[in-house]
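**Fold in tokens:**
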Amino acid sequence: MARAVWTPHAERELDEILFYILVRDRRPETGERLYFEIRQLADEYAESAAPRASHPLAPSSWYYFLHKRWLVFY
């Protein structure tokens, strides 16, 4: 079963997004929900046999999905 790989850089970027939502926007419930949504969707897309979207500016082995306003590469 394939799973999304979270590099240290990807973890930091997700943390930065969540920090902004949790602290700057003062929406802790939204930040927590978003964290779990992104993690779950990344695993679902990695496991899926459905066609994958590639981005012309990303390496050829990277795929992405759009979640709300973020492009999430996996």
